[in-house]
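Mods, move this if it's the wrong board.
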Amino acid sequence: MNWFTAIIAIGGSLVGIWAFMRYIVFMEIRVDNNTFRTLYEIVDTCPKFIVEEEFFTESRHPVIYRAFLKFKGVPTFYLSHGERLLQAGFQGKDLTTTITCLRWSYGELKRFLEDELKKIQLNLFGVPVLVATPWYTDKIGSIKIADKPIIDELLWKDIEEEVSKVADGSLMKTGAILYGKPGNGKTSFIKYLSVKYNLPIVIITFVPEFTNMDIMFLFSQIPEKCIVLLEDFDNYFDKRKCIIGESNHGGNNMGIKFTFDSILNCMDGVYNNYEQVAFFMTANDIEKIDDALKQRPSRFKYVRNFDNPSCSIRKRFLGDWEGEVEDMNLDQLIRMGEFKELGFSIEQCKEKLDIKPFNEIKKICENNPYI
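Not the wrong board. Structure tokens:
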């Protein structure tokens, strides 16, 4: 009986010690996946003791990672990243990240996560690129270098001035629709603005499974001080009709569950104040963009055609060949200029760019009703 009492007493003491350490001495913080990815990317800059790590040959972030980390000026903390199975919902699995630290070091650690971590990320890897979902924004990459646009300044200088005001806080929101043939610098211009003004890019995409409620949550996840990119919007909508999953001849649209009006309401700030946010929409065919977007300055103040390079731009790259390349986009023009510098003739350059076969294939496709 004395032994049983002793075991109960020891067990109770151990439970008490565990509870004291778990809830009084230490505290646990759950952080989002973006924070984990940034911590993992900069982990080589600090002393660490790795407890568990996933090995993989390709370049990606691990699903499993547990380690004690010590960054400069921050008390040591324990980082645990793993996955859990979901019983229901859009996704089968969810990634979870927790940080365990001494309770009295929480304030210092939180300041590090909110301020210093973002600065370290910018200095080492550049501006983060994220994709927005109804549940969270997920980091997919970073941009550190982006060249100044080659296209005529009259096309984009006033847009840049507006974005600079958004970045410094003198303007809360602006927007621009950039349209035109592929390869003429629409996305490159947005990357340039992002890097120059340290504005993260948040990409918005749409899938048939989204409901109007999901769209609301998606836009509500948009953070402060960023660029929101709705890329190739004409692949999602033709005017107000959602065309996700449709074939060129009007096939099944895969049961779309959300409406165009829900996007308009979200963009007007019903579910988000949009503090220091610049909206950008890109499209190849401006005719597919509804008037509620392209003729509403409160949503998109600027609507600009990024067409094939002007005569002056073509002459800048190709000199006396300028008149022979009127139908080239900017990407082709730059590449052709590189070939010219290597000493190739204009016919050889066009052959290398495969321009004639491309035009011939395009004509075949336009004349064939089954393509």
